[in-house]
Amino acid sequence: MSDFIWVLLVILSLCVAAYQRLPLMNAIIVAGGILLVGTIFGSLGLLSWLVFIVVMAPFAVPSIRIPYLTKPMLAFYRKVMPEMSTTEQEAIDAGTVWWDGEIFSGRPDWQKLHAIPMGRLTPEEQAFLDGPVDKVCSMIDEWQVNHKDADLPSEVWAYLKEHKFFAMIIKKEYGGLEFSAFAQSRVIQKLAGTSAVLSSTVGVPNSLGPGELLQHYGTEAQKNHYLPRLASGDEIPCFALTSPEAGSDAGAIPDQGIVCKGEWEGEEVLGMRLTFDKRYITLAPVATVIGLAFKLYDPDGLLGSKKELGITCALIPHDTKGLDVGRRHFPLNTPFQNGPVRGNDIFVPLDYIIGGADMAGKGWRMLMECLSVGRCITLPSTSAGGAKSCAMSTGAYARIRRQFKLPIGHMEGVEEMLARIGGNAYMMDAVTRFSTVGVDLGEKPSVISAICKYHLTERSRVTVNDAMDVHGGKGIMLGPNNYLGRGYQGMPISITVEGANILTRNMMIFGQGAMRCHPFVLDEIKAAALSDEQEAIKAFDKAVFGHIGFALANAYRSIWFTLTGGYFHQSPFKDSTARYYQLLQGYSANLALLTDLSMGILGGTLKRRERLSARLGDLLSYIYLASATLKRFDEEGRQHEDLPLLHWAMQDLIYNLETALMDFLDNFPVKWLGLVLKLKLIPFGHRVSKPSDATEHAIARLLQQPGTARTRLGQGQYLTREPGSLPGELEQTLEDVLAAEPVFDNICRALGEKRSFTQLDQLAEEALAKDLISEAEAELLKRTEKGRAKIIAVDDFAPEELVAAIR
Ligand SMILES: Cc1cc2nc3c(=O)[nH]c(=O)nc-3n(C[C@H](O)[C@H](O)[C@H](O)COP(=O)(O)OP(=O)(O)OC[C@H]3O[C@@H](n4cnc5c(N)ncnc54)[C@H](O)[C@@H]3O)c2cc1C
């Protein structure tokens, strides 16, 4: 072999070593070995060895590497990287890394994904879902709640308390239900499909709030006092963080507490004077205990030398003197309890601080930790539950409602909407299952919870819009017969709360993901911040060279992906899902590569380039959502009938991912590099097409026809056939229509004329008189007509009924 071939082999061995992520020394040994063979059997000589040593020595020999590479790199790093604020640092420290870390690795391990256990309900949790949850759903009259009372009826409040709906997160030792996150998610899903007021009322105390904070950080006395009372519903909690001047920028709250001495129950005690103005606080008007976040100051040094202690959380009983609470906001006609809380110079003892005086100033960290769990559960589950209910109701309605002598669901334009509703519902349920299992495994997945919150609420918005379009005027006319309009009206609420969506997509997902999930970035930041210079150099050396190897590996993996289309990537299955695993593997390498390049080129300014950050976050998010979807398909036994739903979700996610990737590269600040990267990473544009018309047709049909795939899609929703249950009536009428159609066709054939599928009761009489059908068939036609007329009916009112209906 010629020298050129031997040199090529050496370079190739280094590429393969990098691709396989071999440690640096192992890679050098392999390359050196090939060089040796080339020297013995070929004609490689001294020059080759000299070049090899000059290139490799700085990496392999610490005494060369550290002074000449590591130290200047550390100095440069410190110059370009902005310091992290305490709130940013605490937000990043609060979470843990789970499947998001695998995605950032550039090489997700699919065996690991499928080895994660699936979510299961205990018999007790299942009984709760089948019993009290069904019961409370049956007690809700949405029109009464939303339009007339602007509140849940008192018997529903009492039932929720009695059955401990507010205590799903509270441990059994305090009298709570201590349900898994997975079970909580199933409860919220079912409630959300029935009533947004109900699901928010139950969701909030089980999410971020006094219960969660007390269990993690409360003193024994606080836990023993409050937790049993919260579990029994004797206390209703709320949590007040947001103020008029600090919404998204919650760390900037102007609300304050001043440590001082004061009189409390006849004695002089150490306490705080609190002044605050909070708004938008869910459950505040009915809360008996208010979790309050404020900044604590100790100007007289009563607690120590620190004057500004920072954000602190305390529990304030609602009857505390001077507390102004009880007024209500009116959130988009979805009248769950929500309102302002204000206080001016209220004195309370220090032991009102959650966790006592020791926890003064640690409130932000507490909130971030709890939020990283809560955001995985309540809003994503509300969104998934809403989407599943939309899929069931819209599928049934589209089959029942006819225009142009056809069910509207058989029209291609409507099929597009139905497919999007079905595909999204399938994916969203997959994501809530997977993510809540992560929480149950002990994770505090802050990045994943941001992904879930943003993407599921956005998909929910798309779904409810589609459902409204398919329902036409039926969705628009509010009244007791409308099961959609209120969900549509209230949709922006979930977009806004717990971190508004624009902020979540543009700042949080990638911003925190890159710091938290990247295998080396956080180590570099920590190393650079060390005060001991020797320690800093040692730690930085380890992190930065690990990082360089990681970046090289992802560059090789990305190029390999482009050259081969990913067809050589391993997939755990050999069926029609294999391609998705291969593509996701490649895009994970692209994400890791682009993360490093962007951070390397833009440094600290990447944080301000929100739109670039958002698109990298999209890559991360779509791989996460796709992983969860593939996992669901496998957990449910790889059901053939579910394939259209799976294919729709995967193709939609990967298509969107590719769009985000191309948009990112088109807008990369270094134009020529963006172009080069586009040619290298995605030279021919989309690798995956949008879901085809045939796939969408299959989903549309699946939604309109009872069957196992449809049942799985709506699994866990409140669809009982009890009289008065609108979802139940839809299901029953769907079945009746499908059963009545062949009878109707037979009659038309016998009469020799094509009638319209209306006035079936009259047709039944006529056919019975002519002996064309049996009594049972006539009964079916009459029942179908009754159900059909009820389903397409909308409400009307005397004018005065609509005037100021909410007292
Ligand atoms: C119905 C409801 C219930 C709520 N319940 C509670 C509760 O129980 N307790 C509580 O403490 N709070 C609660 N909130 C408050 C909620 O968390 C805030 O509304 C939310 O944080 C957004 O703040 P804001 O409405 O002031 O919007 P702003 O902060 O004014 O934001 C307006 C827009 O700007 C965007 N934006 C802001 N900063 C950035 C950025 N850096 N990059 C990109 N976009 C950005 C936001 O995404 C948003 O779209 C509730 C709110 C509502 C509406």
From TrEMBL:
InterPro entries, alphabetized: Acyl-CoA_dehydrogenase (IPR050741), Acyl-CoA_Oxase/DH_mid-dom_sf (IPR046373), AcylCo_DH-like_C (IPR036250), AcylCo_DH/oxidase_C (IPR009075), AcylCoA_DH/ox_N (IPR013786), AcylCoA_DH/ox_N_sf (IPR037069), AcylCoA_DH/oxidase_NM_dom_sf (IPR009100), FadE (IPR047634)
Query: Which Pfam families does the annotation name?
Result: ACDH_C, Acyl-CoA_dh_1, Acyl-CoA_dh_N
Name the Gene3D superfamilies on file: Acyl-CoA dehydrogenase/oxidase, N-terminal domain, Butyryl-CoA Dehydrogenase, subunit A, domain 2, Butyryl-CoA Dehydrogenase, subunit A, domain 3
Q: Which SUPFAM superfamilies does its entry note?
A: Acyl-CoA dehydrogenase C-terminal domain-like, Acyl-CoA dehydrogenase NM domain-like
Keyword tags: FAD, Fatty acid metabolism, Flavoprotein, Lipid metabolism, Membrane, Oxidoreductase, Transmembrane, Transmembrane helix
Q: What is its EC number?
A: 1.3.8.7, 1.3.8.8
TM ranges are 28-61
Which transformation does this protein catalyse, written as a reaction? a medium-chain 2,3-saturated fatty acyl-CoA + oxidized [electron-transfer flavoprotein] + H(+) = a medium-chain (2E)-enoyl-CoA + reduced [electron-transfer flavoprotein]; a long-chain 2,3-saturated fatty acyl-CoA + oxidized [electron-transfer flavoprotein] + H(+) = a long-chain (2E)-enoyl-CoA + reduced [electron-transfer flavoprotein]
Q: Does the keyword Nucleus apply?
A: no
Every copy of the Acyl-CoA dehydrogenase C-terminal bacterial-type domain together lies at 515-797
Domain Acyl-CoA dehydrogenase/oxidase C-terminal, first and last residues per copy:
361-507
Question: What metabolic or biological pathway is this protein involved in?
Answer: Lipid metabolism; fatty acid beta-oxidation
Molecular function terms from GO:
long-chain fatty acyl-CoA dehydrogenase activity; medium-chain fatty acyl-CoA dehydrogenase activity
| Principal EC category | oxidoreductase
Question: Does Transmembrane show up as a keyword for this record?
Answer: yes
| Cofactor(s) needed for function | FAD
Acyl-CoA dehydrogenase/oxidase N-terminal domain: which residues? 139-234
Q: Please state which protein family the record places this protein in.
A: Belongs to the acyl-CoA dehydrogenase family.
What is the protein's given name?
Answer: Acyl-coenzyme A dehydrogenase
Q: Which organism is it from?
A: Alteromonas oceani
What is the organism lineage in this UniProt record?
A: Bacteria, Pseudomonadati, Pseudomonadota, Gammaproteobacteria, Alteromonadales
